[in-house]
Amino acid sequence: MSMWWFITTLAIIAFISNSPVYAYDNNPLQDICVAVNDSHASVFVNGKICKDPKLATADDFFFSGLNVSGNPETLFGFAATRVDVTTMPGLNTLGISIVRADLEPQGLVPFHTHLLATALITVLEGTVYAGFLVPDPANFFKSRLFSKILNPGDVFLIPQGLIRFVYNVEHKKATFLASFNSQNPEAIMIPSLIFASEPPIMDDILAKGFQLNKSEIAELRKKFS
Ligand SMILES: *[C@@H]1O[C@H](CO)[C@@H](O)[C@H](O)[C@H]1NC(C)=O
Ligand SMILES: *[C@@H]1O[C@H](CO)[C@@H](O)[C@H](O)[C@H]1NC(C)=O
Ligand SMILES: *[C@@H]1O[C@H](CO)[C@@H](O)[C@H](O)[C@H]1NC(C)=O
């Protein structure tokens, strides 16, 4: 076995075994693949099952309602209205979606990430402070913050998978659109995922992990659940 063959094989194995972690949405294999509206009809390969193209209608490619704000939840003061494969079935397999986000004064889209999608944020109204964290390759206990104050018309790019936030710095409402290169850019909301998991993470682990004492952990659990 030649060395080159060996190295190439290793490289291919490394690529294949990494690809689910660093995946993008796949390219479609057909012109249209409108998702059947059945929450059980998920194929865990490339989104949803397609319905018969003859049964597709213009409504499958249409969404109405991004002209109005969602109802902001109370803890952080933000609302998200998603136009993804669950609300616009025609997006199935096409690798794109958009979200309208509304922030109350001092509202925050808290620390979160989208593992499968890069985001472009476009501010429509108000002023927000948006940022994302890039791990330091030399020391994974450190990171660099990339952040910007954004006004209407400003566009900010947040690369796939990085932890980010968007904060309304003003005393009036703010609205922005987030465009994603995924039909279903599932959000991983870090504070609630960690402090409100089911079953809960052991207190000792949270206390050690965040260098807090147990009463502070109990306090955080209460806030996020
Ligand atoms: C939003 O758009 C819908 C559909 O065009 C329309 O019916 C509705 O009145 C609009 N709402 C506002 C607040 O503009
Ligand atoms: C899918 O079906 C549910 C339940 O019948 C309905 O509430 C929802 O609006 C439908 N979604 C779409 C995108 O048609
Ligand atoms: C936990 O930390 C808080 C804030 O630092 C402190 O006020 C409290 O006394 C501590 N509680 C315990 C049990 O150590």
From TrEMBL:
Pfam families membership = Cupin_1
Give cofactor(s), names only: Mn(2+)
Q: Please list the residues that bind Mn(2+).
A: H112, H114
Q: Which SMART domains match?
A: Cupin_1
Q: What PANTHER family does the record tag this protein with?
A: GERMIN-LIKE PROTEIN SUBFAMILY 3 MEMBER 3
- The intrachain disulfides are C33-C50
**Annotated organism of origin:** Solanum tuberosum (Potato)
Protein's name in the database: Germin-like protein
Role: May interact with bacterial adhesins thereby protecting the reproductive tissues from microbial attack. Has no oxalate oxidase activity.
| Family to which this protein belongs | Belongs to the germin family.
Q: Where is each Cupin type-1 domain found?
A: 64-218
Where is this protein found? Secreted, Extracellular space, Apoplast
